[in-house]
Amino acid sequence: MSLIESRPEGLYCSKGDFYIDPLKPVGKAIISHAHADHFCSGCDQYFGHRHTVHFLKLRMGRIAPMKGIEYGEVLNFNGVKVSLHSAGHMPGSAQVRLEFKGEVWVVTGDLKPEGNPYCAPFEHLSCDHLITECTFSDPMFKWPSESEELKAIQNWYHNCIEREQVPVLSAYAIGKAQKMQNLLAKEGIPVMVHSTIAKFNDSYKKLGFEIPAYTILRDGMSKKKIGKHLVLAPPSVFNTAWMLRFSSYSAGLCSGWVFKPETVKNRGANVGFRISDHADFDSLVTNIKQSGAQSVYLMHGDKEAMFDHLKDMELELKILRYQ
User: Fold this and answer.
1) pTM surpassing 0.90?
2) How far apart are CA 70 and CA 256, in angstroms?
C-alpha cells in the first residue's frame, strides 16, 4: 500500500504520521468508534467524532489530549486531508476518509448502512482504495427485518412471563443496549438494565439522546421487584455466577452470530435473535461496489472467505494482515 500501510501497531499513514484504530500505543490515533477492539490506551493524542471522544473519556479517563470533530470536518496532517463520515454502527462511529494529491482512501471501521436510531444516516463514500471490515463474510449472514425479530422477542418475553421466568436479553453495554431499549419501548416491554448499561445510558443522555424509561437492576433485588421486566445485560455476564440471582430465567442472545446454532449454546443462551449493528454479507458487498474502489483491502472477520466471494470482480483484492 502507498498512503496507508499495515504495521504491528495498526493501520499507519506515514505521510500524515498517524494511525487508525491502533492496536498498541502510538503517537497520533484516529479512532473510528469507541468499542474496545478499535482503540487502546496509552496513545499521545486521540482524534475522533465528538461522540466517540465523549465515550473514550468515559472509558479511559482524561489520560491524553483528545480532539472531537464533526462529520465532514477536515483535519490536515502534513498535507493529508482526513475527514470522518457516519458509519451507522453506534453514535460517533465513522468511516475515515483520507485524501492526498487527488488519491482517496476510505477505512470503513465497523459499518451498518441500514442505520441505528442513535446514529446519523450512513454516508456512502466513493474512493480509489477501500479498506473494509468483513465481520460477517458469509452469505448465510442476511439480516431479517428488525420488526420480524422484535416480534420473536415479544413472543419469547410473554412466554417467559407465563412460565414465571425472568427474560434476560444480552446486548453490548454501549451501542446495542441503547438501540434495544429504544426498540423494546415501542413494543411496550418494560426494561430493567444491568448497572454497566445504566452507566452508558447516562452518557447517551449527556450527548442529548433520549433513552426510554428503564429501571436499574440492583444486587439483592427480589423476584417481586423484578416483576415482569425484561432484563437487559452485557453478554459477558452469561455463563457466570451473576445469572444465579434469578431463581428461574431464560437467556436470549441478540447477535448476528446466532445464525450459527452453536453460538447460542456456547454463549450461555437458550434462544437467539438476529439483530446486529454490523453490515450483513449483502450490505458489505454492496458498499464495496458502490465505493467504486479499484483496490479493496479486507480486514476483520473471515477475510479469506470474503476474498473468495469477490475474486471474480474486476478488483485488486488484498487480505490485510498486521505485519
Assistant:
1) yes
2) 29
